[in-house]
């Protein structure tokens, strides 16, 4: 009986999500991920290959997107993605759940790997990462749609969206990004905070929609 | 650095995005560990960045995943050992189980054979016992018979009559012992000439002129009991067809004697 209720609740939620739109679907996915991850991560730290496989399924898409947008080369991006998850496998014990989410941890690993490659492949090694970014802009071997953003971030005002894009998807530091946007650092930081606040609002809206569906059951 | 500057300078965001150096990271981590409000804010930030990432996910080619898993499987010797160990263990246990089963099988087969053998022996013993019982019964019967005969012979009231053969059996004689008290007759036929298979000696008692059958004399035994007939005046023996006759053949009378 309980199982039946549980199953039908699940079916309803997912049907409801499809009726809504892609954004809330992703949101629902991230909600689901929260519950299962702890156990999976434990298994990963015990060298369970199945756990790595499942965590890959959950996160590889998001990480691949970030890598692609940073390096703008599909071949290199694929190598870096594999490399990232190799590191996830090898260094799993060093992940500390009290310090942050698993996704954040992988994100940082991936970002560091891409930045390392960008610095090395640049023939004129620059101390300023910003210049690296500018030079790479020329040699693009990538489908343009991979560089486009999706979801709630597209609803933001242009400068908010750009701020997020620069620091999150293009791997620039705040310092590099404010130069790129040609605004003072303090202004740039407030852009980021504003953007994040609006994102939070739209995600909360989706959460209440979800709860509404749950209540309707 | 206090909480306010930390928030206003977007340090949490930069920490999350991995922009800070090791020392700064340590400071932020200390803040987060000691301030639950800050931690809650950071948790939300992480959640939002993750959702942002997932919303923008691009599915990588499936070959990457299989390559990744292949690399892991071939490079990590430890995981192979871990996987093999339970296998060998289970085979080891399987081996023991199989051995025990085989032992049981052989054992039961051996026991079954033993059982059959013992059953066979028991049957033989039972047969022998039946045989011995029969023999014992036979001997008992014999002893009883002979005791009865002997009792008659040694009885103080027993009278002995000797029937001498006539011209039909010139040297033949029969010793008869008659006891009127116990009403028994025993005869010794040791000296009766042997007859062919078609004929038997038969004994008769004469009671007031009538010959009454006392029984056919057996060819197997020398000493035997005959039927005692009350008021018998004489004992007579005739030769009759084998198995005896209803009436005596007078011409074949071989011997007779009058009783006192």
Strand content of chain A: under 5%
- The string of secondary-structure elements of chain B, in order, is HHHHHHEEEEEEEE
Architecture of the largest domain in chain A in CATH?
Orthogonal Bundle
Number of E-state strands of chain B: 8
Continuous helix count of chain A = 9
Overall tally of structural domains of chain B: 3
Q: What structural class do you assign from the helix and strand content of chain A? A: mainly alpha
**Helix content percent band of chain A:** over 70%
Largest protein interface, residues of each chain: A-B, 56 and 44 residues
Mean pLDDT rating of chain B: 88
Portion of residues within helices of chain B: 40-55%
User: What is the terminal-to-terminal distance of chain A?
Assistant: 15 Å
Cα radius of gyration of chain B in angstroms: 61 Å
- Alpha-carbon distance between the two ends of chain B: 162 Å
What does this structure look like?
The complex is a heterodimer of chains A (217) and B (260). In chain A, 75% of the residues lie in helices and 0% in strands. The radius of gyration of chain A is 19 Å and the shape is globular. Chain A contains 9 helices and no strands. Chain A has 2 domains: 1-124, RNA polymerase sigma factor, region 2, helix turn helix motif (Rna Polymerase Sigma Factor, Chain: A, Orthogonal Bundle), CATH 1.10.1740; 149-217, Arc Repressor Mutant, subunit A, CATH 1.10.10. Chain A has helices at residues 2-19, 22-45, 49-71, 74-90, 102-121, 129-136, 158-169, 174-181, 185-216. By secondary structure, chain B is α+β, with helices and mostly antiparallel strands. Chain B has a 4-stranded antiparallel β-sheet with strand order 1-2-3-6, with helices on one face. Chain B starts with a helix and ends with a strand. At the A-B interface, helix 2, helix 3, helix 4, helix 5 and helix 7 of A face helix 2, helix 3, helix 4, helix 5 and helix 6 of B.
């Amino acid at each position: 009986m309980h199982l039946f209720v549980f199953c039908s609740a699940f079916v309803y939620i997912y049907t409801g999500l499809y009726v809504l739109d892609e954004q809330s679907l992703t949101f629902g996915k991230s909600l689901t991920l929260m519950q299962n991850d702890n156990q999976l991560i434990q298994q990963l730290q015990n060298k369970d290959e199945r756990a790595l496989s499942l965590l890959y399924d959950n996160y590889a898409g998001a990480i691949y997107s970030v890598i692609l947008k940073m390096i703008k080369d599909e071949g290199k991006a694929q190598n870096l993605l594999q490399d990232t998850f190799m590191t996830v496998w090898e260094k799993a014990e060093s992940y500390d759940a009290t310090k942050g989410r698993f996704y954040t941890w992988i994100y940082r690993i991936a970002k560091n790997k891409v930045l390392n490659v960008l610095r090395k492949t640049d023939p004129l090694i620059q101390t300023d990462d910003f210049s690296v970014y500018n030079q790479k802009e020329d040699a693009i071997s990538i489908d343009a749609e991979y560089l486009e953003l999706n979801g709630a971030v597209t609803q933001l005002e242009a400068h908010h969206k750009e701020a997020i894009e620069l620091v999150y998807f293009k791997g620039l530091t705040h310092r590099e990004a404010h130069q790129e946007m040609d605004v003072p650092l303090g202004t740039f930081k407030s852009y980021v905070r504003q953007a994040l606040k609006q994102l939070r609002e739209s995600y909360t809206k989706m959460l209440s929609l979800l709860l509404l569906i749950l209540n309707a059951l | 650095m206090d909480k306010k500057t930390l928030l206003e300078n977007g340090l949490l965001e930069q920490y999350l995005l991995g922009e800070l150096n090791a020392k700064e990271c340590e400071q932020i981590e200390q803040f987060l560990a000691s301030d639950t409000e800050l931690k809650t804010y950071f948790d939300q930030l992480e959640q939002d960045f993750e959702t942002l990432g997932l919303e923008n996910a691009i599915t990588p080619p499936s070959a990457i995943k299989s390559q990744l898993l292949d690399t892991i499987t071939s490079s990590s010797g430890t995981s192979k050992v871990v996987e093999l160990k339970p296998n060998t263990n289970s085979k080891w246990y399987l081996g023991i189980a199989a051995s025990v089963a085989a032992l049981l099988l052989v054992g039961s087969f051996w026991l079954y054979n033993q059982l059959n053998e013992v059953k066979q022996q028991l049957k033989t013993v039972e047969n022998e016992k039946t045989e011995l019982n029969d023999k014992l019964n036979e001997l008992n019967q014999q002893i009883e018979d002979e005791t009865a005969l002997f009792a008659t012979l040694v009885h103080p009231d027993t009278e002995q009559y000797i029937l001498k053969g006539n011209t039909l059996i010139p040297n033949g004689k029969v010793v008869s012992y008659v006891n009127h008290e116990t009403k028994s007759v025993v005869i010794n036929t040791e000296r009766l000439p042997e007859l062919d298979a078609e004929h038997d000696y038969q004994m008769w008692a004469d009671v007031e002129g009538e010959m009454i059958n006392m029984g056919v004399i057996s060819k197997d035994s020398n000493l035997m009991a005959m039927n005692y007939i009350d008021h018998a005046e004489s004992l007579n023996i005739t030769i009759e067809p084998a198995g005896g006759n209803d009436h005596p053949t007078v011409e074949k009378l071989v011997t007779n004697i009058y009783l006192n």
